[in-house]
Amino acid sequence: MTFRFNFDSSGTLKTQIQEGADCDLFISAGQKQMNQLDSTASAEVNTEGLDFVDAESRVDLLENKVVLCVPEGSDKGIDSFDSLAEHLKAEDILFCMGNSDVPVGQYTQKILAYYGLDEAALAAAGVITYGSNVKEVTTQISEASVDAGVVYCTDAYSAGLTPRGRGYQGNVRSGHLSGGCAEERPPCRGCQGVPGLPAHRQGCDRVRERRLHRTVSIRWGDGMDWYPLWNSLRIALISCAAVFFLGIFAAYYIAKLPRVLKGVLDVVLTLPLVLPPTVVGYFLLLLFGAKRPLGIFFMEHFGVKLVMNWYSAIFASIVVAFPLMYRTARGAFESFDETLAWSAQTLGLSNTWIFWRVRMPCCRQGILAGTVLAFARALGEYGATSMIAGYTPGKTATIATTVYQLWRTNDEAGAMQWVLVDIVISAVVLLAVNLLERRQKQGGKHT
């Protein structure tokens, strides 16, 4: 017998199975995702009438607990769910929780509901940021990108985090298996249940359901939140301006270097073009993380946190868009007729004057094309942005991250609206590129 494993959040695994992925054994961290694939579940849960699970093979395999964790050395004084609730009410911290489509996020929603906290209002105030799975939440806590978060006890143990609070009450049942046998897992030391809840209500599958509003209100003509568009355009424009000058000067001066050095730098500067965006985001976290030297320096001297803010996405956009500007500018400069520059030098003109008044006008079509491509790349950036800036409605949300979050939470109508917005913007960008290329060809024929 050969086992092939596929690890992801329960919501993602459920979607993969629904879309036709081969699966013989499904282990979910919550009943909701399992019920959505079980034809014997109620129509209120299995709304699409899916039949992917043998109901007789379902067993409760494992138990886990949700715990409250804070970064090491935190000075916020968050030592229990009670104190967490007070800080959330005061809106003086940044709290990380899982999306509503993953069990850890659903369990956290029940904790917020128990304390009478409005998730939508907290998200709108920029107090809550989201992770697409428990690993993302754990990473943000470990990197001190947030002030607190709720994860599973096992994930806290694996990440070396110490759960806060005194003891625990009851269990959050989190293992539901299609096929297999049952066993009990020893409780994690120091894990805390939801204080104040009676024993028979402990565990998220035992706490009565309470519907919460989604964190992002996106409806045409009905209070549609345009912040993702504004934030995306702001990030793209700032990134594009930085990349414009960085790309031009890098392309101009590197061309003058010795051949070997030029080749090495060319590879390094172009590398983000071929690297997966998540790899770029990982390196950015290593560079700018709150526990990294650069992040500590800016926090101690300027009080600026370089990650999990809207401007954090600028770093990601610059890195991924720079190669496009650099390569395009280099190609434009290489096609420049150097005799024009030499002629200007014989007239006693400075190199700076020649660069801006002779070289740049002659290369303007290529430069403009590179600028448009860099803008488009910055506008559509997702992978690195989601890692270094996260997703906080009204604070770090962009078009790309909003589409993903809405899709993950089954709001296909809302996701489609933003997809259409992005398609319109992308079409305008492509038309601009085609127009520039056409003008460049026409200019070449006249010369």
Task: Please tag this protein with its features.
18 helices, three-stranded antiparallel beta sheet, four-stranded mixed beta sheet, mainly alpha
Topology:
Blueprint: H1 10-18, E1 27-28, H2 31-35, E2 58-59, E3 66-69, H3 81-90, E4 95-98, H4 103-114, H5 119-124, E5 128-131, H6 134-142, E6 148-152, H7 153-158, E7 176-178, H8 227-254, H9 259-274, H10 277-288, H11 293-302, H12 312-334, H13 338-346, H14 351-362, H15 364-379, H16 383-388, H17 399-408, H18 412-446
Parallel strand pairs: 4-5, 4-6
Antiparallel strand pairs: 1-7, 2-7, 3-6
Helix pairs in contact: 8-12, 8-15, 9-12, 10-12, 12-15, 13-14, 15-18, 17-18
Provide an overview of this structure:
- This protein has 447 residues and is mainly alpha-helical.
- The protein is built from 18 helices and seven strands.
- The protein has helices at 10-18, 31-35, 81-90, 103-114, 119-124, 134-142, 153-158, 227-254, 259-274, 277-288, 293-302, 312-334, 338-346, 351-362, 364-379, 383-388, 399-408, 412-446, and strands at residues 27-28, 58-59, 66-69, 95-98, 128-131, 148-152, 176-178.
- Strands 3-6-4-5 form a four-stranded mixed β-sheet.
- The protein starts with 9 loop residues before the first helix and ends with a helix.
Order of helices and strands: HEHEEHEHHEHEHEHHHHHHHHHHH
Strand order of the largest sheet: 3-6-4-5
The shape is elongated
Beta fraction: 5-15%
* C-alpha end-to-end distance: 70 Å
Short summary of the structure?
With 447 residues, the chain is mostly helical.
